[in-house]
Write the structure tokens for this entry.
Amino acid sequence: MVKLGINIDHVATLREARRAYMPDPVEAAQACEDAGCDSIVCHLREDRRHIKDADVARLRSIVSTRLNLEMSIAPDIVNFACRIKPDQATLVPEKRLEITTEGGLDVKKNLKKVTAAVSRLKTARIDVSLFIDPSIGQIDASYKAGAGIIELHTGEYANAVSGAARKRELKILEKAAKYALSLGLEVNAGHGLNYENTAAVAGIKGMNELNIGHSVISRAIFVGLDGAVKEMRELIR
Ligand code: PXP
């Protein structure tokens, strides 16, 4: 059964719109777990625009499924992760001015730095996933870097406007997943997945977990977090 990780960053984004105390992403994480998600995902950005250090520490103490910390390979963030010990760290590229993560981590180009970060996190007994574009070169590099898990970036698939383009992008994801599995990597996917486009990605053979944020938190405005998570869970199972 394909697992569902819920990214709760946008609950903190709403809180930060007023620099207030609510809505609380930790309370949201609890509600997502109660609704049956398999992990909680949050991104501690270098600019701390939504999730803060204290949120991650509080999440660590209440999350009873798995805490997946999205993060860059900046040394202070790696130090923080080694201290807090999420169950998993997902390494992503980060640009100051981006609205959300753009593209996958270029593991091929940054192999030495990524390998060093992976090694430090693994020494702290944290599972490491690399968020990458679905290309054979990036998968090979991820394997070389020592990560046991990859998360395939589904942005191109989600942004495809024509049916033909979407089909093509799905094929690319399928091929990438198959190749990664043949190397013994665990395969996750995420970014831009919603209630219309997720079922096909969930149907990719060997898919382990989908990480979804924006669409579920948006849907929660209308049906509540419990309903939004349950609807997505039904859809991917
Ligand atoms: N996976 C990764 C690595 C991400 O960076 C994000 C966005 O924070 C997601 C999944 C979730 O993307 P979305 O909010 O578009 O569902």
The chain is about 50% helix and 15% strand. Residues 152 and 189 are 4 Å apart (CA to CA).
